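@channel sequence for tomorrow's demo:
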Amino acid sequence: MTTSVYDFDCQTPGGKKKSLVDYQGKVLLVVNTASRCGFTPQFEGLEQMYEKYKDQGLEILGFPCNQFAGQDPGSNDEIMAFCQLNYGVSFPMFSKIEVNGGGADPLFKYLKKEAPGALGTRRIKWNFTKFLIDSSGEVVKRYAPTVKPKDMERDVKKLLA
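structure tokens (generated this afternoon):
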């Protein structure tokens, strides 16, 4: 039985398995991302938040997804290069995944179950849906794609305190 996000393994862009237990004790912000989305500029705010709070225990984990209007069609290497060149992303990014449907990544199935969206929906509506997880691995809150990183800062700071 799955009890926390630490029960999951994810794949790095290079194809290596990475256990989320490596982030135990950290506050996590898990985001499904895209390179060609109207919300793509949120990478800038996410990176600023990461730089500001990483030494206090924040980790931001990005998961590229091409399920919404084909807005992340590149290879893992192309996506990583885009994020680094255009937004200076230094927080961990993972291999491209699916977040909805039969091929949905197990981590995102769990996140959607633990923090349903509006009206109890489990589907992720668009890129840049964000999940905030406390330092014990419990999913605390889900944020809509329209919520900017700066608007989550108070919640992040509370968990880091």
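heads up for whoever presents: The CA atoms of residues 71 and 95 lie 15 Å apart.
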